[in-house]
Design a protein that fits this description.
Layout: H1 23-49, H2 58-64, H3 71-82, H4 90-107, H5 115-134, H6 150-176, H7 181-195, H8 199-213, H9 216-219, H10 222-247, H11 251-259, H12 264-279, H13 281-293, H14 306-314, H15 323-351
């Protein structure tokens, strides 16, 4: 019997680098690239090369120019950032914004990732922020909440929403997982009801409708009612995110904890919740990003946040034509904060091995 020689697979062909599969696709790609270059050049020419930056010429120089009028930002930036806050006290509003940024950065550092340290950072930071904005202590003049506005108010609403809403979300999540049906079903009804309503309706209810149903001593300022409504909306969504993360934890781990005799607090605090937060990290970061952008909705109920401040910046007779530049500047501010949050979320995903490396 003749023995045939073993056959080996043919050598694979050399990998060819192609930018397109067919000539038609190459033409389409080049056309799209040309359009992108054209749009980028037009935008750069409008925003930089043909733009007016100084305030020497005033609105007349902007109207005569072919590019953007950044002079409105130079002339009206205080209104955009500080709103109606008294002019002589705006340094307090700027320092309060810096305080929020500092406590956020400290919270992102692993050194402060313990319960006591993170609580200390937020308690001290929130107290310092409120003391600077409100005044009435250390010789600072008192400024009412009706004068708060601009970027400082936007940051205050965002931080308060997350600071109140996240612990509330944990409570709602644990209550919905209760083995008592009347607790879990009631909590589920509350969560589903809040999630089924648009945020604007909740803010309007807390700002306008709720005072009619509460006694005078319990109404409080409109700003704090809006914060509570925003925190409730945040907590309903975040509770479901955390619950989804808990469902991703293998059931055998909780059963093993029960077999070891661990208490409910130990099972939740040391086994289930850390793994659930790890599983829910991408969705949690996304929820923080959404909450920051949704702070602009408080303009509907009459709060003077950064978007309303921007409207006031170009609302005068001499700058009404420069609304595009004002909105572009506000969009840039939102982009800086939101992009920073998303990049930090990507860092946490790499650190905890969640998502693509």
């Amino acid at each position: 019997m003749a023995i045939s020689a073993p056959s080996y697979p043919e050598k694979p062909p050399a990998l060819e680098l192609r930018f397109s599969a067919t000539p038609v696709q190459a033409v389409v790609s080049l056309c799209c690239l040309a359009i992108l270059v054209f749009v980028a050049w037009k935008l750069l020419n409008w925003a930089v090369f043909s733009a007016v930056f100084g305030t020497s010429g005033g609105p007349a120089a902007c109207k005569a120019a072919a590019g953007a009028c950044w002079s409105v930002i130079t002339a009206r930036w205080r209104i955009i950032l500080f709103g109606l806050y008294p002019y002589d006290e705006q340094w307090r509003s700027a320092l309060a914004c810096l305080t929020v940024v500092v406590i956020t950065v400290l919270s992102c550092m692993p050194t402060f990732w313990t319960g006591r340290r993170i609580a200390t950072v937020w308690v001290v930071g929130a107290t310092l922020y409120y003391g600077l904005m409100k005044g009435g202590i250390l010789g600072l003049p008192r400024v009412g909440e009706e004068a708060w506005g601009g970027l400082a108010l936007t940051l205050f609403i965002f931080v308060a929403t997350c600071l109140i809403g996240f612990p509330l979300a944990l409570c709602l999540c644990l209550l919905r997982r209760s083995k008592l049906p009347w607790i879990s079903r009631t909590t589920g009804l509350i969560i589903d009801t809040v999630r089924s309503l648009p945020l604007i309706s909740i803010l309007f209810t807390f700002a306008v409708v709720l005072p009619f149903a509460l006694p005078q001593w319990l109404q409080g300022d409109k700003l704090y009612r809006v914060m509570l409504g925003s925190a409730l909306f945040f907590s309903a969504y975040q509770a479901e995110i955390i619950r989804g993360g808990m469902q991703g934890v293998p059931a055998g781990q909780e059963e093993a904890a029960l077999a070891l005799g661990l208490s409910y607090r130990q099972r939740i605090g040391h086994i289930l919740l850390p793994q659930a937060m790890r599983n829910a990290l991408p969705a949690t970061i996304n929820q923080f990003v959404i909450s920051f952008k949704e702070t602009s909705l408080v303009i509907i109920v009459g709060l003077f946040e950064i978007l309303a401040s921007g409207n006031a910046a170009y609302g005068t007779g001499e700058w009404t034509f420069a609304y595009v530049e004002v909105y572009a500047f506000i969009a840039f501010i939102y982009f800086v904060f939101v992009f920073s949050l998303s990049r930090y979320g990507a860092y946490l995903e790499r650190r905890t091995s969640i998502g693509p490396r």
